[in-house]
Amino acid sequence: MIPQAYYGQKLENPNSGYRLASTGAIKDTAMEYDDVGFFAADYLIKAYPELLKSRFELATIPDTEIEFLELAAARRGALMSGGRVNLHKICEVLINELRSGKLGRISLETPLMIEQEVIEMAAVAAKKIADKVDRKERFKTGSLTPDKKDRKEKRENDRAEQSARMKKQSSRRK
């Protein structure tokens, strides 16, 4: 899990946090290698498949990050007993090779990506605001079932009648 706050700044876009963690800008103790490794593998499969293919000596690049990590683990010997994949180890290898530049020249952000993410984050912010307004409105009206609503209306009517009677009695006394 990437922390949502890094040095006092809230990262609204989770992809920014993963990109920062991939480069080492976020301390290793504040992240999970598996999460960052899966993010990096997914991004690299889409953006730089040839670099992965040559670095990990693969014939083809799989479609998903888990398949890629399994193949890479088999090539690098990141297997546990019984032939199970050690995901933490292969994610650590991938991140370290990305950071050291062994994978090649890679850009984790492009202007087009940033524009798209700004649009997505604006939509998320608008949804948050709409949800907050909706929550406030529901709080004001309360969660009234038809039965509760009837009882509330009856109480309000009774109070209004009582108030009218009190005013009438008070005006008679004067």
Residue share in helix: 55-70%
Strand content: under 5%
And the CATH topology of the largest domain?
A: Conserved Hypothetical Protein Ylqf, Chain: A, domain 2
- Overall tally of structural domains: 2
Structural class: mainly alpha
Series of secondary-structure elements, N-terminal to C-terminal: EEHHHHHHH
Specify the number of helices.
7
Mean pLDDT: 85
Biased composition (Basic and acidic residues): 137-164
Region (Disordered): 137-174
Protein name: Ribosomal biogenesis GTPase
GO molecular function, one term: GTP binding
Question: Your description of this structure?
Answer:
By secondary structure, this protein is mainly α. It has two domains: 5-109, Conserved Hypothetical Protein Ylqf, Chain: A, domain 2 (Orthogonal Bundle); 114-173, no CATH class. Helices cover 67% and strands 2% of the residues. The protein contains seven helices and two strands. Strands 1-2 form a two-stranded antiparallel sheet. Strand 1 and strand 2 (9-10) form a beta hairpin. Helix 1 crosses helix 2 and helix 2 packs across helix 4. The protein is elongated. Keywords: GTP-binding, Nucleotide-binding. Residues 137-174 are annotated as: Disordered. It comes from Paraglaciecola psychrophila 170. One of its GO terms (molecular function) is GTP binding. Residues 137-164 have a biased composition (Basic and acidic residues).
Blueprint of the fold:
Elements: E1 5-6, E2 9-10, H1 14-23, H2 33-47, H3 49-55, H4 65-76, H5 87-100, H6 111-141, H7 146-173
Antiparallel strand pairs: 1-2
